[in-house]
Amino acid sequence: MTPVLELRGIDKSFGPVQVLHDVALSVYPGEVTALVGDNGAGKSTLVKCVGGIHPIDSGEYLFEGKPVQVGSPRDAAALGIEIVYQDLALCDNLDIVQNMFLGREHKRGLVLDEDTMEEMAAKTLESLSVRTVKSIRQLVSSLSGGQRQTVAIAKAVLWNSKVVILDEPTAALGVAQTAQVLELVRRLADQGLAVVLISHNMNDVFAVSDRIAALYLGRMAAQVKTSDVTHAQVVELITSGRSGDLGLTNGVPA
Amino acid sequence: MTTTIKPAAATAPAPSIGANLRGYAERVRGGDMGALPAVFGLVVLCTVFSVLRPSFLTPGNFANLFTQGAAVTVIAMGLVFVLLLGEIDLSAGFASGVCAAVLAILLTDQGLPWYAAVAAAILTGVVIGTVLGALVAKLGIPSFVVTLAAFLGFQGLVLLLVKGGTNISIRDETILAIANKYLPPALGWGLLAACVAAYAALQLLRARKRAGRGLSADPISLIAVRVGALAVLGGLAVYVLNLERSRNAAVVSLKGVPIVVPLIVVLLVVLTFVLRRTGFGRHLYAVGGNAEAARRAGINVDRMKIAAFMICSTMAAVGGIIAASRASSVDPNTGGSNVLLYAVGAAVIGGTSLFGGKGRVLDAILGGAVVAVIENGMGLMGYSAGVKFIVTGTVLLLAAGVDALSRKRAAAAGLR
């Protein structure tokens, strides 16, 4: 199976500080790839490079097997890469439909085509089996944390995207809402999307992911199948960069 | 919170009037008061003034209210756009003065035809707004400071334009007609009928289209109530305005809807359309609600800011033209003293939030009505300007307090 998104030898520095060293990452359609790592390991930087917010210094960026140049968030969106950031970026004073179409409204002439947008939003939420909101015309300000996360994710998949990257989607949620969001993450992958899940929570990672990519001090320590590793091994990879014969030897991939 | 979203194919049931009312009550309890305080205040003020001063309720005074409040209301309608972004334009009052001065100079001193002078005045407004907006958006100076500086600058500019304190009288019939002439009674009725019919047709068409696509639509009964309310209130207003107001009708007949009223209605419809039905309006709300989210959605936040200031100053120009028409002249105080504060007050009293993201053009009209009623009623009661200022200030503070409290309440209710 070819990865839909593949990075090879990515380097990224901010001034004198090199944040990413020779990072490789493969993301496959229909799978959830968990991106794990301690604070400062470079997860967010890597995601921002993928999303076109930071240009990469060197390395290869392949999308569906072809090398591409991603210089801005628009380029990433055009490829079908959507990132749901931790702060969700929703407007509280707009309703669910308005938020989902923000910046990409359907219009007929000058006038917004509210009916079509409402139908499409309803269809997308329906396809994700979201059954927790009362009305799609309710303001986002009246939604719970889990519902907001759901709206943000639905917004990302509305555009026939191929890769959806979720930055700690469950960090601020309670138990029941976390379960809901994880269920949604799994469903996205089952629909054939490639999902990248950034998480600190090992339970979440093992609950939904197919692959785990562990970053350690800006290097990719290991990319493994979730079924091949144990909880403890992943924790070791995150904290020391190696575990048994997995991971980095003297700071270099084995 | 556990009901399912209806599949798009099945017909969603039309929510009943009761459900609509309950939803509204829920929103109000949750802190989203909307225009409720303004409507409530308007009813209370009108009742008090008509009990204390029977002359308040005469047709003549009713007509006065419209021409008195028109300029401030129009400026407030423009301010709504800036307030929606969480910014403020303190210069709107004197911007209207500058535009009025441009109008007067071109009309009276240069002898240009009225349409050229009006175009120049409005263009002046556009330029002022663009410069202010660019300073706020591109240089990042807080709008409070930029427009405070402009407030002082424009005050001086008006003085220079009208040559240090003289006043320029306006003799052009068309301009004078705006705030001093009235529609023929039949035309007043005709326009009202057209408005009600158009409103009813739009509402019915929309409901039918939505129902046809299986989306939840307003029930016919609710539409009937809305259209009925518009017809009754509008009919009452037109009826009273069409009564003879002249003390001696044999000498000069004075009746009909003031010409500013249809002007304001047109502005209301156009601006409401822009805010509610176009991508531009949607983006304006988005920037006011969460500028970062708007930026990430690909909205050019700077351009939205410049556009909002441009609309605000352009509406200020229209307000200036109305003020010049009403006073039949322009002097250094046109658009000065309390005009700006009344306009900000009108927008906020009507329910526009000072924190951005919430407000309607209609709010400015309701708030403008409150301000006009206070000004007019207190004048009839024989209170001095001092008392009027204090009362209006108190009402503004009250409105801003309601705004802040409802935000707090909404936060507590999890609505924000």
TrEMBL record, chain A:
Which GO molecular function annotations are given, in alphabetical order? ATP binding
Q: What SUPFAM superfamilies has UniProt attached to this entry?
A: P-loop containing nucleoside triphosphate hydrolases
Keyword annotations of the record: ATP-binding, Nucleotide-binding
Q: Which Pfam families match?
A: ABC_tran
Highest taxon listed in the record's lineage: Bacteria
Question: Which residues are in the ABC transporter domain?
Answer: 5-242
Q: In its keyword annotation, does this UniProt entry include Heme? A: no
- Annotated Gene3D superfamilies: P-loop containing nucleotide triphosphate hydrolases
Q: What is this protein called?
A: ATP-binding cassette domain-containing protein
TrEMBL record, chain B:
Q: How does it sit in the membrane?
A: Multi-pass membrane protein
Q: Which residues cross the membrane?
A: 34-53, 65-85, 92-108, 114-137, 144-162, 182-202, 223-241, 256-275, 306-327, 339-357
Q: Tell me where it mainly resides.
A: membrane
Q: Which UniProt keywords apply?
A: Cell inner membrane, Cell membrane, Membrane, Sugar transport, Transmembrane, Transmembrane helix, Transport
Location relative to the cell = Cell membrane
Q: Which domain of life is it from?
A: Bacteria
**Pfam families named in the record:** BPD_transp_2
> Which InterPro entries does the record match to this protein?
ABC_transp_permease
What this protein is reported to do is described as:
Part of the binding-protein-dependent transport system for D-xylose. Probably responsible for the translocation of the substrate across the membrane.
The name this protein carries in UniProt is Xylose transport system permease protein XylH
Q: What is the lineage of its organism?
A: Bacteria, Bacillati, Actinomycetota, Actinomycetes, Streptosporangiales
